[in-house]
Amino acid sequence: MEETKDINNTAAEEAKTADKKKKTSKQSEIDALKAEIETLKAEAKEKDDKYLRLAAEYDNFRRRSREEKDATYSSAMADTVAELLPIIDNLERAAAFDDGEKVREGLKMIASTVGASLTKLGVESYGEPGDKFDPNLHNAVLHDEDDSERENEITDVFQKGYKKGNKIIRFAMVKTVN
């Protein structure tokens, strides 16, 4: 009987030892999982921080771009108005004259000032009698048949066209032949 008791005690001790090993093993697993959770939390926090910084940088970029665009527009507008002011001054001077000849001289000066201002702004006029008609540049409002003129030739210009570089500001309004 004592042998049975010893065997039972030994078995009980072995069971306790096995339970301790299982508990230790489970505790080790739990600790490893907790460590992994902490690592993942740190990675998530780092990525969240990177995302927030990137979003803030993008917002700053958009704001700066908008401000630069507004400043560019304002600057271009101010440059354009500065070029128009001498024309306005000359118109006011011409309006002060009663003599028709002086008014005409003033209008000629204004016309030359307008041309110079447009040139400074990079705007060029086009559409002269004798030019070849181009539907990309001209708006033909009248058409005549005349065998003495070349085909698709502009004979009259009702309104000059204006362009800046490749951008058409206003099409020339013309009369063509043939």
Walk me through this protein's architecture.
It is a single chain. The chain has two domains: 1-121, no CATH class; 124-178, Nucleotide Exchange Factor Grpe, Chain A, domain 2. Helices cover 65% and strands 18% of the residues. The protein has helices spanning 2-96, 100-120; strands at residues 123-126, 138-144, 153-159, 161-164, 167-170, 172-177. The strands form two sheets. A three-stranded antiparallel sheet has the order 1-4-5. Strand 4 and strand 5 (167-170) form a beta hairpin. Helix 1 (2-96) packs antiparallel against helix 2 (100-120). The model has no long low-confidence stretch (mean pLDDT 87).
How much strand content do the residues show?
15-25%
Number of strands: 6
Low-confidence stretches: none
Helix content: 55-70%
Quick one: overall form? rod-shaped
Order of adjacent strands in the largest pleated sheet: 1-4-5
Q: What's the helix-strand series?
A: HHEEEEEE
Biggest pleated-sheet summary: 3 strands, antiparallel
The Cα radius of gyration reads 44 Å
- The termini sit apart by 134 Å
The tally of helices reads 2
Alpha-beta content class: alpha+beta
Multimeric status of the protein: single chain
Q: For the residues shown, what is the average pLDDT?
A: 87
Count the domains.
2
